[in-house]
Every structure is written in C-alpha cells, then in structure tokens.
Specification:
about 425 residues, alpha+beta, Ubiquitin-like (UB roll), Creatine Kinase, Chain A, domain 2, 2 domains, eight-stranded mixed beta sheet, six-stranded mixed beta sheet, 13 helices, 14 strands, about 35% helix, about 20% strand, globular, disordered N terminus
Length: about 425
C-alpha cells in the first residue's frame, strides 16, 4: 500500500483527532461485506484513539456475509479521512482490513479496491468517475410514495427525503450535482459529482445509508432493488468516467475507444459484479431504458456503454450495466480492470449502434451484437471464464462471492410463489 494510505495509521500518536470524533459518544467502525451490506462495530469514545492508532481486532468472517463459516481474527483499520457524523450524535468511519501481521486482507472489498489501485498507479491517478444512483421510495404498505414520472415537479414526502439526503451528503463532503424524479412512481435519482475511484466507492456507500436513514425519518422505506415493482422501470447505477491529463486530440480519441472496447469486451462477465443478484436480471433487457445489447452508442438507451460529453466538451463514457445492489468496491475494481485491459490491448469497440425513434432493431443489424446475460447464473459463468476480471481479485474473494451467488440461485429456484399456486389450480 502507498505510504500514508488507509492501511497506515492516519492519525499518529499524540495528534488531534478530527472534530467529528471528539464530539461523538460512540463511533461506528464500518465495512462492506462481499454482498454490499454495510456492517459495523460500535466503539465508545474512550477507545477511539487507541483503535485509530492500532486498529480493532474483530471477526473477519463477517466480511464474507451470508457465506461465513469459521471465525477468523482480522484487524479493522479505520480511516479518519472517511469520518461522517450521524443524526444521533455518533460518528461513522470506513476502514480497511489487515491480518494479525498487518498484511492487507484482500477478501475485504474495500481493501481489494485499494490493492488494485496501488498496483495500477497510472490508471488510478487518472481515472475519475461520477454516478447516478436510482431507487424507489415506498410506504410501510410497500406502495410507491407518489405517482410522479420522469422529471416531475414533485412536492411532498418523496421530495423531502431526497432533499434531506442530498443536503446530508453535501455536509459529509460528497458533491451532489442534482436530484430529480425518475420514470417510475416513487422513483428518484441522485447525481454524485466526479471523484477518484476509492472516494466514489465510499460516497456510494454513504449515499445508500443516508437515503435509507432519510426515508426512515419520514416513515418511508428506500428500495435499492434493481426492479422492485412489476411493470415499472428498473433502477440503475450509471457510472460516468473519463481519464484526466490528456493533451493530443488523437490520443484522446484512441483512449476513449480503447476504454469503451475494454468495457464491451468484458461486458458479460462484468454483470456478475454490476448486476449481482437474482433480481438484477428483472431489470436488464426489461425495456428501452435498460441495457441489453453489448454495444456502444451516443443515444441508444439499450446500449451498455454510451459516449457523452461533459459541459466543456470532453468525452464522458457512461457504463449503464450496474444497478444499486452492486457492491461499489467490487464493481469499480472490475470496471477499472476492464478499462486497463482495453487500454493495454488497444481493444476496438466497433461501430456505434444508434437507436431509431421506433426502438432498436437488433434483427436489422448486419452483425447482431452479443447480448448481456439473462440470468445471474449465466453472468457468474461468464465471470469465471474471464481471466482478467478473476485475476483482479484474490481467489478467495471470488470463491466466496460465487458460492454466495450460487446459493442465492438455489434458494430462488426452490421458492414457491402465489403465482405458482394459482397456475396449478385447474379451471
């Protein structure tokens, strides 16, 4: 790891603690498990300095989430640069996980991203990304909080939740560019400003937490499921990316194409991390707003990669495959690995496939493009066949993640629904 990075003590002995920590009675030391759930250990104020200087021994198997089997001692090193205040007067910090000898533990998703960034400093130093986070707000009865539509001028509880969440994130140092009503009833979007990879992953982690807490304060629930309501649009987590410090226009055009080429070459295997749940595949291929084809375009909403432009005219590459259930640390590690492979291999993205006003006609394309997986099972198979993405992670992380996803598939296959009952009743 880099000197002074999150795996090194960032508050040396005797140095003052950040003000947020000195005023908190409890500090939640947080980490994200393999399946994207935010977890924590609560530390009283009297222990905070010791924990920051030395770390906290905890059961590292909690990082494995629902596939944990045996307890294992690991050390959680909190990063004071990530500290945020909570409404109840406590504070939260994210951290990295090391073993008892102080070596990074790459099964931890945040540590996995940091290790990749540390091993690829050129891309890590140049990559910048922004994100569109979408979700649904529902009542305790699981009804949408409103009947608004795309960019509706909406007042009421939904707008209050979004405004409060955005203001809270701004107070935490996360730039919120805009917020608006999305296409579904009770569906909203927050647009997060441009950041480096680790900062963006942290920001997405806090954003989901803040939205959920803001919803709860208004007696509502936030659903980050990929497509929670039948017949309504799915929720995406679109990434907008660019590389900084480019000068010649020809080089810029080449690198943009190679980045898109890398994302398209690995598009099917990326789905195991970008669309990591059984329910994710209710969104993909579900309509004109959801990606389905492994193509790039300028305007095609069914393309998994879209080339747009920033206000100053600089190219911005939008990856439309992810949904909000994605673990942001694993997602960004995989995306960066795909981009790195595209740049190293000078991978061509092919010709843009634009959408006609009547919709994209795949059958009318001379060389029909590949399609994104139709199920989590197919996505996991694609991941395991992708050496570049598998090699971006520790083998133990991949094994545990795949085991959990396979278990989800088994559970979903054994689930009996009301529809199954009704379809079996003879007239």
């Amino acid at each position: 790891m880099s000197t002074g990075g999150p795996l090194d003590p960032t508050v040396p002995r005797g140095e003052p603690l950040p003000a947020v920590l000195t005023g908190a009675r409890w500090v939640h030391l947080c980490f994200v498990d393999l399946f994207g759930a935010l977890r924590s250990v609560h530390v009283p104020a009297s222990q905070v300095r010791s924990v920051i200087e030395r770390g906290l021994v905890f059961d590292g198997s909690a990082v494995e989430g629902r596939v944990r089997v045996l307890e294992v001692d690991r050390v959680l090193l909190p990063d004071p640069a990530t500290v945020v205040a909570s409404p109840d007067g406590s504070a939260r910090m994210l951290g990295a996980v090391v073993d008892r000898e102080g070596q990074p533990w790459p099964v931890d998703p945040r540590t996995a991203l940091m290790l990749w960034l540390d091993g690829h400093p050129e891309i890590a130093g140049r990559w910048r990304g922004a994100a569109e986070l979408e979700w649904y707000l529902v009542t305790p009865q699981l009804e949408p909080v409103d009947r608004g539509g795309y960019f509706s001028e909406q007042a009421g509880a939904g707008a209050e939740v979004v405004h409060r969440a955005a203001e809270t994130l701004e107070a935490l140092g996360v730039t919120v560019l805009a917020a608006h009503h999305e296409g579904g009833p009770g569906q909203y979007e927050l647009d997060l400003g441009e950041m480096a990879a680790l900062e963006l992953a942290d920001a997405l982690t806090w954003a989901k937490m803040v939205v959920a807490e803001s919803a709860a304060m208004h007696g509502l629930r936030a659903s980050f499921a990929a497509r929670p309501l039948a017949g309504q649009p799915g929720s995406g987590l679109h990434l907008h990316q660019r590389l900084v410090d480019l000068t010649p226009s020809e080089e810029l055009q080449d690198e943009v194409r190679w980045i898109m080429g890398g994302l398209l070459h690995h598009a099917r295997s990326l789905c195991a991390l970008a669309a990591p749940t059984v329910g994710s595949y209710r969104r993909l291929h579900s309509g004109p707003e959801a990606p389905g084809a492994v193509v790039w375009a300028h305007t095609n909403r069914a393309a998994v990669v879209r080339l747009g432009h920033l206000p100053g005219g600089e190219p911005s590459i939008e990856y439309r495959g992810p949904d909000p259930t994605a673990n942001p640390y694993l997602l960004l590690t995989a995306v960066l690995a795909a981009i790195g492979d595209g740049l190293d291999g000078c991978r061509s993205p092919g010709t843009a496939v634009e959408e006609e006003p009547s919709g994209l006609d795949i059958a009318g394309i001379e060389a029909a493009p590949r399609q994104l997986p139709r199920s989590l099972d197919a996505a996991v198979d694609a991941l395991l066949d992708d050496e570049v993405l598998v090699d971006a992670f520790d083998a133990r992380l991949v094994s545990r993640l795949v085991d959990g996803q396979r278990a989800d598939l088994e559970a979903a296959g054994a689930n009996v629904t009301r529809a199954d009952l009704l379809s079996s009743i003879e007239d």
